Fold this protein.
Amino acid sequence: MRERILIVDDEPSIVVPLEFLMRREGWDVEVAADGVAALEAVARVAPNLVILDVMLPKMNGFEVCERLRADPRWRGLRILMLTAKGREQEVQKGLDVGADAYVTKPFSTRDLVARIRGLLGGPR
Amino acid sequence: MLQGWVIVAVSLAYLGVLFAIATFGDRRAEAGRSIIANPWTYALSLAVYCTTWTFYGSVGRAASSGIGFLPVYLGPTLMVALWWLVLRKIIRISKAYRITSIADLVASRYGKSQLLGGLVTVIAVVGVIPYISLQLKAISGSFSILLRYPSVVMPGGGTDSPPFHDHAFYIAIALAAFTILFGTRHLDVTERHEGLVAAIAFESLVKLLAFLAVGAFVTYGVYGGVGDIFRRAAESPRLRELASAAGAGGSWGNWILLTLLSMLSVMFLPRQFQISVVENVDEDHLRKAIWLFPLYLLLINLFVLPVALGGLMIFADGQVDADTFVLTLPMARRAEGLALFAYLGGLSAGTGMVIVETIALSTMVCNDLVMPVLLRMRSLRLNERRDVSRLLVSIRRLAIVLILFLGYLYFRMAGEAYALVAIGLISFAAVAQFAPAILGGIYWRRATRAGAFAGLLAGFAAWAYTLALPSIARSGWLSAAFVEEGPFGIALLRPQQLFGLTGLDGTSHALFWSLLANVGLYVGVSLWTNPRPEELRQAALFVDVLERTAAPERTRVGPGRASAADLLPVIGRFLGPGRAREAFLAYARRRGVGTIDELRADADVVQFAETQLAGAIGSASARVIVSSVVKEEPPGLDEVMDILDEATQVRAYSRQLEQKQRELETATAELRAANARLQELDRLKDEFMSTVTHELRTPLTSIRAVSEILLDSPEIAPEERERFLAIIVKETERLTRLINQTLDMAKIESGSAEWHTAELDVQEIVREAVDATSQLFREKGVALSVRTAGPLPPVRGDRDRLMQVLINLLSNAVKFCPPTAGRVEVRAEMAAGAVRVDVEDNGPGIPARDHEAIFERFKRLAVDGQPAGSGLGLAISRRIVEHLGGRLWVDSDVGRGSIFSFALPLETPAPAGDGVPARIAG
Amino acid sequence: MGRADATGQRLAAIFMMGCVLLNHPIASLFSRPVDLGGIPLPYAYVFFAWGLVIALMAWVVERPRD
């Protein structure tokens, strides 16, 4: 079964390369542009992993992450937080709300893909 | 043969000599070669203390109480030892503040109180009049006795004759005339009486020599020396007792009180104050006077007891009054010349006293009694008279006549009933009342005006009741029962045994009660009342006079400010214009300027003027006069603080501390506020930085990601590659825009942006902005229409900036309009005195809660599929419009589209200035 | 201590001494009917003490200044 990845970001110019990268790895990709849409998309496609931007319209990434973690249906879901705010307290906050990894923008595409591979291959 | 005319002629000749000496002394003083400017003259003139009371009365007292006459001279001897400490201070005070009488001293010390000055004057006049009458009695008595030469007959009963048959009456007139001649010869009233002092010193010499001559004559001429007299006297049990201390006035209690009384009198008798303080030329003369004056007293008393004993033995029948022994002994021995000399000695003792005393009293009456009243009587317009110095002299002359007339009156009423010494002691006890107020005043800062007043009044009342009333009763003007049984028969209130106190003679008894009441009330009331600032000021000036005058540069505390030109005419009225001008000129030179006009109008010159005036009319009146000229400022807190006692200094210090503390608290609060502001600014900066980095990171992220993909994927399809490259270009543009706008924003906010202000045609700018953005509209297929309502008046502003605002609004409108269906309308028109521009779109609209937020930095509304702006455009636009004096706002609602509008005033109030920093709030 | 101070204090001391010498009870020690060269003792004593006080004062204030 192919891995399903959900990309949540409101910047098209970031979504486009991310989508390309994921597809190149052979994964299925879904895209959501805001927090609310992200929750809907998760419920719809049940992705293996969510690439979650923090600064989102309607509902921010932290909140989305918390909701997902609070829902027992998505216990095996991997969440990778992606943010332009790289300060330590933000990283900490991301991990506190249950993210599996925290990547700051701008990122190295190789590293990002490697992290995602790692997350997907790791124990559920 | 000593005939009447001979005695009169000799008397007049003697007065003539005195007058000549006085004139000579004045001439020398004017020529600058003073004859009294030497310690010997000063010491001799102090012997004005020895009056006819000494000359005749000592022998009289010795004849009744042995060495009991001595305390009156021992007291001054002891007191003189303290002069170096006390009198020097009083002299310093009087010189520094131009004090010319004892009343003035008291008035000045307690805040220049006219009331106190008046009270002291009344006490002095009432108290001293018996003393003056005593001189009249002695002189007229000696004249009458000498007239009967060679027979020795007592003048008794003379007071029944009408005044014009009475010698004393003519003597009083002669003395009045002579005193006027002496004391008020000059129109100026402040100058010391140098000639007078010289004459008084001469008189002291005459009376000493006369007494010594009589003493030597009796002791060595009549008897065989001192030992011989005592031996012979010892033969009589009564005289033997007299010669031993057993007869010393009865008790040691009296001895001590008399010593004390004379100690105070030698300082506070008006004539003593006049000679020792007012007429003092040089403080250093005290040095010689300290031992010469007591030596004089010792010498003049050396033969008192021998003469008394001799007289008692020669006039054993008791027909001759012992008070006249000095005159009657030479007469009994037919020593005609010596008798005349003795008479002259008595005359000099009497005239010296009367002259100085009445001058001193007349000064007090004039300055502290009459002037305050005259100054109060506005109808006299004393302030406006050109020259009041003549009036002053007239008042003094009148006072002299009045005082001598009162003395004569007392002599007629009570004189016969008393021995010389007893009368003198009444006066001593009266002036002793000044001691607490003066001695306390120069050492005790806390002493108040109320305390001094209460003490003086109580002491005077006690004196009047216990001493003056009995004296009047004794002379028959009051029922003797009053004294013997007390008023209304109340024994406890008997004036001479008040509250049942016995064992003291009349004088000691009176002194005890009056000083007790005086000191008690003085101290008590002072402690329970608070001194006013004026009193505190004077207290400090008096108590610290030695330190102050040693350091004259210390800040003087002034009562106000006035120019010398204002003061000069006022002072001139009282001192005489010429003298006033001279004084001011001398003062000006001391201050280091050449003319009066150059003197600065400060507190110092007022102080000087007031001091000058005080010399003429007393400090209290001077204060009134000067304050009528000077814009009186109540002594400022700082000024008073400046000079007050330690307690006040401590108060001032703690006040400073308090102020410092308040300042510190204020500073702390300010610091805290500044710190809070800094923290807020810091937070804002952090937030800004964080936002900016976020805004930077986003395009960088996509650029990097896309670039890496391109780098890693050579197999990528060409159309994909093109799409990626377009992203790079677009994001780079976004970065550039972001950087530019951030810098722009920073410039505007920091005020370093350049503004090129000119007259602008808004319609033209609208047209240009529309042209510049038309490409955007075409690309998206949005319709753009421009509507203007005729020509608009120009506004002032920066063309490029305004263009920036319009382009921003137009591009925002395009951005939010639906493609193809979008419509944007631009309107420019006049509205409410301003040029208003609306940019209306039919986009999704903005919810009301976001209407302000969109003007904040980096607040963006998400528009699906739209290229995000920097988030700074509207923020910058609003700042630009506000800088031009207008405002920028939005009217919109969800689903209704938006209208962004700005209005620019026609008369733009001069914008904060080109390039001048426009303050950012916060 | 300045010279003026010293003078004042010495004079004050003389004042106190004089007060004691010329008053009860010291002076009353001499109140006895004894002659001193024909002069009664109390009389002689008072004048002697008086003269002494004057002499001391003269000495204090007239010493050559140092």
About this structure: Chain A touches chain B at residues 10-14, 16-18, 20-21, 24, 33-34, 55, 57, 84-87, 104-110 (CB under 8 Å). The beta strands of chain A are 4-8, 28-32, 49-53, 78-83, 101-104. Chain A has five helices and five strands.
